[in-house]
Write a structure and sequence with these properties.
alpha+beta; Immunoglobulin-like; 4 domains; 6-stranded mixed beta sheet; 37% strand; elongated; binds 2-acetamido-2-deoxy-beta-D-glucopyranose
């Protein structure tokens, strides 16, 4: 372009060329900005640069250059010739600058700077390059910060007066501090002001004064940022009662204050109590509900367990009964010595109770057939009124000892004076009522035990272990009570009823 322009210029008359050159240069002008520009720390600021022209050429280059105390930074450059990537930003300003590109056609080359920092303070030069024209303007950026609200603290009594402190943080540049009276006049009192520069370069302010009694009681602390023309101000009115010289009033005031605090505390406590009471009531209610549910549940469970136990008992009985055998007894009576309390004495007709520890002899009928293995079940009908004994007697060789004492090798259930006893444990069996008239006996040599059942109720009465270890070769014979008048107690031949499994 320069070449063509040069060629063009060369073909023209020198005067015409000068006239055109004059016109061209007169076409463009940068409007000088109002200096300085103030940026608030943490906020954004626009650095103005306005090109005055009838039409702004598209092919232009704008460059912003920062000149600080010791450095020069090419902040950002807009290059109109580079269509792909026209803007190049310095990394110290990364992401913090913006041109108003849509405003370029109006000649607005201003730069927006985001998140102003203390280090941004300095001179910014706006350089505009056109095809045959160049100019620049300098914009001064001043940085400022308005601190947070001021607070006045009553430090307490200092001599006859009251110490007051005013604080505020985050000012830049160093702010002006003034204490004022009710008329807005600067106070006469001596003021001590501390401005502390923080690590980030901004200032914290602490200022103190002593208010003497008798002076203007309206006190205002004002902190001024002259750059931003902003002010923070706090105002207090100190009542006479606060001065130590008026201590009776002070005492009253303190008393009232304490009372108020107590009332407030009491109200707070009351509210708290009410809340906890309500919560407690709710909790109790919940607990009751839970307890009720638990009880219902427990009831249901125990009911189920009872049923299950009942079914187990039934099943056990039916299983025992499935081993039923027919018992045939020897007609001749044998005598067993039962070393068990309450053993019935068939021979003795007197109702005088036997000494509980003394063994007694009982006549019984012993089965003809004995068992050495397996499971065998039989039922015996017993007299409801009389005492009786029945069970199993174990022997090695019965014939040898016929009619004699067979010693302790028997496992029996016997009734004495309405109560049931098991022979081996010498123990009374807790039974509410002995209503059964048929006793089932299971001789279980597989599991080495004798079980007695209430056949009518299908309940087990007692289980007695056999202790087979000592005498493994034993043969076990059933024995039955010998009825009165010598009548053989019938041995029930069980009718094998099918186990009602479907009802289980
Ligand atoms: C440039 O445009 C921006 C955005 O519209 C505006 O805030 C700014 O004042 C303009 N600058 C000048 C110098 O007109």
């Amino acid at each position: 372009m320069m070449a063509s322009r040069f060629q063009y210029a060369m073909t023209l008359h020198i005067i015409i060329f000068l006239q055109i050159a004059h016109l061209v240069t007169g076409q463009f002008k940068i409007i000088p900005p109002d200096n300085p520009v103030i940026g608030v720390i943490g906020k954004g600021v626009t650095l103005p640069c306005q090109l005055e022209a009838k039409t702004t050429p598209e092919r232009l280059t704008v460059q912003w250059i920062f000149t600080g105390k010791s450095q020069k930074i090419f902040v950002t450059t807009y290059d109109g010739k580079n269509k792909q990537n026209p803007i190049s930003e310095d990394e110290t300003y990364q992401g913090r600058t913006n041109f108003f590109q849509t405003e370029f056609n109006k000649g607005n080359m201003s730069l927006h700077l985001k998140n102003v920092m203390l280090s941004d303070e300095g001179k910014y030069t706006c350089n505009i390059f056109l095809e045959n024209w160049y100019d620049e303007v300098v914009v001064d950026l001043n940085v400022a910060a308005k601190g947070d609200d001021t607070s006045i603290f009553l430090d307490g009594h200092v001599g006859q007066g009251i110490g007051l402190t005013c604080k505020s943080q985050g000012w830049f540049p160093e702010p002006e501090v003034v204490w004022l009276d009710s008329k807005g006049q600067t106070r006469k009192e001596k003021v001590i002001t501390q401005r502390t520069k923080t690590s980030s370069g901004i200032f914290d302010v602490v200022t103190s004064m002593n208010l003497e009694p008798g002076s203007d009681k309206e006190v205002s602390c004002r902190i001024v940022n002259n750059l931003l023309n902003t002010v923070c101000e706090s105002r207090v009115l100190i009542s006479d009662v606060f001065f130590p010289s008026t201590s009776p009033w002070m005492t009253a005031f303190i008393a009232i204050l304490c009372f108020s605090i107590a009332v407030i505390a009491a109200v707070g406590a009351k509210l708290k109590v009410n809340t906890t009471r309500r919560q407690k009531a709710e909790k109790n209610n919940l607990e009751e509900q839970l307890e009720a549910q638990k009880n219902t549940f427990k009831g249901a469970i125990s009911e189920n367990i009872k049923q299950l136990d009942r079914l187990k008992d039934d099943l056990d009985f039916w299983e025992a009964r499935s081993h039923a055998v027919l018992i045939d007894v020897n007609p001749d009576c044998r005598v067993l010595e039962l070393p068990v309390p309450g053993t019935p004495k068939v021979e003795d007709t007197s109702s005088e109770p036997e000494s509980l520890s003394s063994p007694s002899t009982v006549p019984v009928l012993v089965g003809k057939e004995g068992f050495a293995a397996g499971k065998h079940y039989w039922e015996v009908e017993v007299d409801q009124q009389q005492d009786w004994v029945l069970g199993v007697v174990g022997e090695k060789e019965r014939q040898e000892e016929e009619g004699t004492n067979v010693g302790e090798d028997f496992w029996a259930l016997h009734r004495s004076q309405g109560e049931l006893f098991s022979s081996k444990e010498n123990s009374k069996i807790e039974k509410k009522s002995m209503s059964c008239s048929v006793i089932g006996v299971l001789l279980d040599l597989e599991e080495a035990q004798v079980k007695f059942y209430e056949a009518g109720q299908r309940n087990i009465i007692v289980k007695i272990p056999l202790n087979l270890g000592k005498k493994p070769a034993e043969i076990f014979y059933p024995f039955l009570p010998k009825g009165e008048e010598g009548v053989v107690t019938p041995v029930i031949c069980p009718v094998l009823i099918p186990v009602p499994l479907e009802t289980l």
